Every structure is written in structure tokens, then in C-alpha cells.
Amino acid sequence: MLEIISFMALALVLGFKHSYDSDHLIAFSNILRKVDSIKSSIKMGFSWAIGHMLTATIITIALFIFKGSFLNDFLKHFEKIVGVMLIVLGLISLRELFKLHSHRHKHGSVIHLHPHVHLKKHKGNNHSHAHMFGIGIIQGLASNDELLILFTASLAVTSLGGLLVGLGLFSLGVVLGMIFFAMIFSFPLVKLNSEKIYKFVSFGTGSAGIIYGALMLFAIL
Questions:
Q1: DSSP states along 41-78
Q2: DSSP letters of 69-111?
Q3: DSSP secondary-structure letter at 158?
Q4: 107 pairs with which residues across the strands?
Q5: Cα–Cα distance measured from residue 83 to residue 6, given in angstroms and rounded to the nearest whole number
Q6: 65 exposed, middle or buried (CB, 10 Å; 0-12, 13-18, 19+)?
Q7: Helix, strand, coil proportions of the chain in percent (round to 5)?
Q8: SS3 letters across 192-203
Q9: Helix axes of 22-32 and 38-66: crossing angle, nearest 10 degrees
Q10: What pTM does this model have?
Q11: Helix or strand run (H / E) with residue 121
């Protein structure tokens, strides 16, 4: 009985820790930077966690049933998929931040085009929840070291049914961890409503997404 309780506690703690993987926070931040309320950021955190755990649960159950016999060769390639996604998210963040415009100016009979860059603040979350869910599904494919620990522990103390309960607690830990991060991250953006802060955050999350995604893509990490 003590072993089962310890396994469940381990599942909850590992889930909370897992939510703070670097690729999770970077991808999440690239969407979360556009929130307009703390409540919305919490909902987005929940959407991400549900999508992530949907994929991660399927992979863990497959590992349990087949004992990892056919997944070992594929797991390392899942990291590259997440790397590509991070690069795309980073490019989108920077594209939305820096907008190149051309204005026509007439000097006598001559018309000139003057291209320049506008820093543009773009807030809104019309489709952010769906985006978060999709991003969570993709990220459930990779960075699952904690799930592998949980899977290994389950082999010694429980059945598939016990593993499913453990996955539920793991998922709860992921949800709690991501909601907490969402609240902390979005607080200055929402409460201060500062253009400078938004620009800084957008540039930071976009750059981090491109750099970290490239490192994952080329298996440098």
C-alpha cells in the first residue's frame, strides 16, 4: 500500500516538474504573450496541458503494453518535430512584432517609397485556446523524461489500471504547474499594460523559440 501511495505522489510531483521543461515554457510563452486577462491565461494553460497529456498518455500506455519495443527508435525524432514548431512560433512572434511598411511620398512630380519598420503590439486571443491545445498535443511527443520515470516505476508497483491513475495525477501536476506559470508570466503584461514590456517579451520569446528550436532540431541539446 505504501508503495502505491509513493507511486501516486511521485506521479503528481513529476507532472508539476514536467510542466517546466524549457521547450514547454518557450512555446507556451509565444502564445501567452498576447493574453488580455489573467483568467484567459489560466484557461490557455489548461488547454495546453490537456493537449499535451492526451499525446503523452497514449505514448505511455503504448510503452507499458509493448514495453518500448517499437517506440525507442521514434522518440528521439519527436524532439525534431517540436524543434520545428518552436522555430515557427518564434518567427511568428517576431513577424507580428516587426512590421515592414512602405509609405508613398510625393515630391513634385516624383513619388518615393519609404520602407520602415513599425513595432506593432498585437493583442487578442480569438484562436489562442485552440492553438494551445494543438501545441500541447505536439509537445506531448517529446521531452518526456519524467513520464519514462513514471513508466519505469509503474512496472514494479502497479498494473495498467494503476498506471492510468498515476497518469491522471501526473496530468494534474502538469495542469497546476502550467496554470501557475501562466499567472506569473501574464501578470505584468495584463496589469501594467505596457508597450515596452510587450515588445521586450515578444522579442525575447520569439528569439528563444528560434534558438532553442534550432538546438532541438539539430540534436545539440
A1: HHHHHHHHHHHHHHHHHHHHHHHHHHTTTTTHHHHHHH
A2: TTTHHHHHHHHHHHHHHHHHHHHHHHHHHEEEEEEEEEETTEE
A3: -
A4: 110
A5: 34
A6: exposed
A7: 75, 10, 15
A8: HCCHHHHHHHHH
A9: 150
A10: 0.81
A11: none
The number of angstroms, rounded, from the C-alpha of 150 to the middle of its chain's C-alpha atoms is: 21
Q: Angle, nearest 10°, between helix axes 72-97 and 128-139?
A: 150
Ordered per-residue pLDDT tens for the chain, 221 residues: 788 888 899 999 999 999 899 999 999 999 888 888 888 888 888 889 889 888 888 887 777 777 655 566 666 678 888 999 999 999 998 988 776 444 555 555 555 444 444 444 444 454 577 888 899 898 887 767 787 788 778 777 767 788 888 888 998 999 999 999 999 998 888 888 788 888 889 899 999 999 999 998 887 76
Grid cell in block for residue 194: 505596457
CA distances from 189 to 6, 23, 121 (A): 39, 21, 12
> DSSP secondary-structure letter at 144?
-
Q: Identity (one letter) of the amino acid at 4?
A: I
